[in-house]
TrEMBL record, chains A, B:
Keywords tagged on the record: Amino-acid biosynthesis, Histidine biosynthesis, Metal-binding, NAD, Oxidoreductase, Zinc
Protein name: Histidinol dehydrogenase
GO biological process, one term: L-histidine biosynthetic process
Function of the protein: Catalyzes the sequential NAD-dependent oxidations of L-histidinol to L-histidinaldehyde and then to L-histidine.
SUPFAM superfamilies: ALDH-like (SSF53720)
Name of the gene: hisD
Family affiliation: Belongs to the histidinol dehydrogenase family.
Species per Swiss-Prot/TrEMBL record: Sphingomonas montanisoli
Enzyme Commission identifier(s): 1.1.1.23
Listed pathway(s): Amino-acid biosynthesis; L-histidine biosynthesis; L-histidine from 5-phospho-alpha-D-ribose 1-diphosphate: step 9/9
Residues engaged in binding substrate: 237, 259, 262, 328, 361, 415, 420
Catalytic activity, reaction form: L-histidinol + 2 NAD(+) + H2O = L-histidine + 2 NADH + 3 H(+)
Pfam families noted in UniProt: Histidinol_dh (PF00815)
Signal sequence coordinates: none
Gene3D superfamilies: 1.20.5.1300, Nitrogenase molybdenum iron protein domain
């Protein structure tokens, strides 16, 4: 049974605080293992990759192949069910269009003091995309991570993915072909992240690494943050659905389950102002679960991490949502805009009764890689900016340095940095 | 003596690669100490802060005060040398103007399929600013870190700074007053970072932590990245100056020394196409060093990490600069624009003979907090964006979900996520 809270109960504040603070992230301490793997790949390169890949994936890189050829990706695309291919291509096109509008503009202007200043955005030279093997190998995730990189103008986009016993995932390869991934290596785990960061004889290093992964992959990215750029520190996924009684309980139940079915650590929270509606949704969830091929996962997630929060008025919802700062926030209410105007912290918001979160996972266009675990307080979803960087620039002529230089000299002297002061003062003659 | 390379020498490629790969970052392993400090502050809060502050800073927080009052900051400003106050206020005004133009625009549009999509930027609720004690306590750094936060719209800006034996730095306090810092706590080190990230009874937690610090501070920020947002992983500072023979050697020497005087690990590199000019600059560096109050630091940095790279033509410089991806790049050449157009990786670029890097440190306007250690390949200088986050949103009506929903259903089914499929399919009726 999921947690059930009522904002009018005396113990609500403390109980809600517990819900906000509950850590769903597994405390697997893999940091020492990961440190060792990174050191070995950094030192021994491809030989270390071959060892680890044999050991963890049961794949012999030298005998079974290091790379998945471009032709193999194209073949996976060519043999795809036409309906699926069409869906993937629609998704790719919509993701491309949304992210193209994210490309930042350069600045270049001269101010009243005659100082020319500006900023120029450029793409990173190379990016790495991690794609998990097994259950979490999603073609939608390939599109969401690869297309922003390509839209940014990244020159070389390298995908790494474990191929357990050599097995590849045709859907993932087809998505790689559609997204324009430049190379695909059959390596995974922390060893693949280390190879991307430092490079090996075969695999050229990249500047930014993105993509989901297990605890080893996440820890490797965390440890290598600073050597390369990374997308974010990711935790279990979550959704908050704010819904009034005018909704179809079956729709809302399905929305809650669409999060719960991802992983036992996922979290689905319903906030509603109607106790009867809450009961109906809870009953619908129980009714729908057995029909799902993902029933076991969804049931565990809902029972362990799910919650129904009853509020006196939906006006209370915005403040509660900000406390949770959820990855996904669905506002299934009559006037979603009004509620959205009060929300400050959420990764992505789904407005109105006809916007299930799952359309955002696949085809709407905005990125589905979003901050989890209350990180929407300070972090944003993946974007073109994650694959670009800004170079500021300054240009002074003789008049401009005379206008603002004396202040720089004064400050440099006050800070005890005489060469700073001299470098400006010499230009003042 | 600094390293001297010539691109026409046979061993150049290898020698330049060594220069690029040289790590100047101290390998102090403070990670275990920092982990312990963070755990203690997280568990014991203010009591742990009081212990550490007594031990590391010789300051008794309970007897000597936890905070520097706003009135004390205002008093420091009021009693400041008027010329310095004017310089700080000019700097603040210019930094504010430059960063105000960085505020991102929201998006909101409806596409041909009837799908409304957009993104909304909001500031983080609270930000923490670390200001080192001792030599590296620079008022310019307070302005550069605090003003972008305020321009972003951060509600609460908390500064932490160690006050060894209770001593405060009036220049730093005056800068805090000018920048509008909301509160100043007399704590430093990893313990201050932990307090900002997790909060204590006295110090409320923040969402983003910025500002320079020693190895403990940097490691604490790295470990807490994900719990909070951080500005960047920072290393020793560096400058590359590309200069032709038409420059005054004394100006260029001062520019190189303005980097070298920061720290023995700082790096200054001259790239020029004229061996005679290189000799003159080298001689000027030696001539200027003894006159500096920072002579010892500057001499060590120049001897240990400095380099002069002679090239056959300045056209080679852009590619070399990209390999180094320097924090600061000065282009003191006849046509700096032409060279700048070829450069891809640099934190900030200073164009022309009248733009010493030091004007950027203080008064030009762009931020002086920049990526170091080749991180300009993937990272940008501090900006208003570091204190904001983007919430994407999607709104579909009945027609729009019918237009793009079927593709989402197909993809969800292919990915084995039936509740995702159902949440969309139910809306298709």
């Amino acid at each position: 049974m999921p947690l059930r809270l009522d904002s009018r109960d005396p113990g609500f504040a403390a109980a809600f605080a517990d819900l906000v603070d509950a850590r769903r992230e597994a405390d697997e301490d893999v940091s020492r293992d990961v440190t060792a793997i990174i050191a070995k790949v950094r030192g021994k390169g491809d030989a270390a990759l071959a060892d680890y890949t044999q050991r963890f994936d049961g794949h012999d890189l030298d005998a079974g192949g290091w790379k998945v050829d471009r032709a193999e990706c194209e073949a996976a695309l060519a043999t795809l069910d036409p309906k699926l291919r069409e869906a993937l291509e629609l998704a790719a096109e919509r993701i491309r269009a949304y992210h193209a509008a994210q490309r930042p503009e350069d600045r270049d202007s001269i101010d009243a003091a005659g100082v020319r200043m500006g900023a120029r955005w450029t793409a990173v030279d190379a990016a790495g995309l991690y794609v998990p093997g097994g259950r979490a190998a999603y073609p939608s995730s390939v599109l969401m991570n690869a297309i922003p990189a390509k839209v940014a103008g990244v020159g070389r986009l390298t995908m790494v993915t474990p191929t357990p016993k050599g097995a590849t995932n045709p859907l993932v390869l087809a998505a790689a072909a559609i997204a324009g991934v430049d190379e695909v290596w059959r390596v995974g785990g922390a060893q693949a992240i280390a190879a991307l960061a430092y490079g090996t004889d075969r695999i050229a290093p990249v500047d930014v690494i993105v993509g989901p992964g297990n605890a080893w992959v996440a820890e490797a990215k965390r440890q290598l943050y600073g050597v390369v750029g990374i997308d974010m520190v990711a935790g279990p996924s979550e959704i908050v659905v704010v819904a009034d009684a005018a909704n179809d309980p079956a729709w809302i139940a399905a929305d809650l389950l669409s999060q719960a079915e991802h992983d036992p650590t996922s979290q689905s929270i319903l906030i509603t102002d109607d106790a009867g509606f809450a009961d109906k949704v809870a009953a619908e969830v129980e009714r729908q679960i057995p029909n799902l091929s993902t029933a076991a996962t969804a049931a565990t997630s809902w029972a362990d991490n799910g919650a129904i929060v009853l509020v006196g008025s939906l006006d209370e919802a915005a403040a509660l949502c900000d406390r949770l700062a959820p990855e996904h926030l669905e506002l299934a209410v009559a006037d979603p805009e009004r509620l959205f105007d009060k929300v400050r912290h959420a990764g992505s918001v789904f407005l109105g009764r006809h916007t299930p979160e799952a359309v955002g996972d696949y085809v709407a266009g905005p990125n589905h890689v979003l901050p989890t675990g209350r990180r929407a307080r300070f972090a944003s979803g993946l974007s073109v900016l994650d694959f670009m960087k800004r170079t500021s620039f300054i240009a002074l002529d003789d008049a401009a340095v005379r206008a603002i230089g004396p202040a720089a000299v004064a400050l440099a002297e006050a800070e005890g940095l005489p060469a700073h002061a001299a470098s400006v003062a010499l230009r003042l003659g």
